[in-house]
Amino acid sequence: MSGLAVASLVLGILGFATWFITGIPAVICGHVALSKIKKSRGSLTGGGMAIAGLVMGYLSMGLLLIVATSAAMLMPALYR
């Protein structure tokens, strides 16, 4: 089992509570884990966890982008 895949999954889950702070390391760990799993030719497992961590990391960063964009669009209406 790849430790980086587990780290990516845990950081991806935490990404929704901490916004993008742990989302970025989740994406980095996920990509590195997938690369190492591919190079190991079957001796390492955890590709599904790495992909899940990647997806959750990217979603947490996307959620931040949506919230920030919405807040920026509402600012002129609030300060009228």
Summarize this entry quickly:
Helix content is 76%, strand content 0%.
Structure description:
The protein is mostly helical. It contains 3 helices and no strands. The model has no long low-confidence stretch (mean pLDDT 92).
Set down the secondary structure blueprint.
Elements: H1 3-14, H2 23-39, H3 47-78
Helix pairs in contact: 1-2, 1-3, 2-3
- The count of DSSP E runs of length 2 or more, i.e. the number of strands, is 0
What average pLDDT do the residues reach?
92
Shape: rod-shaped
Count structural domains.
1
Question: How many helices does DSSP assign?
Answer: 3
How far apart lie the N and C ends? 56 Å
* Beta-strand proportion: under 5%
* Helix-residue proportion: over 70%
Sheet with most strands? none
The chain-level structural class is: mainly alpha
C-alpha Rg (nearest Å): 16 Å
H/E order of the elements? HHH
- Which regions are unreliable across 5 or more consecutive residues at pLDDT < 50? none
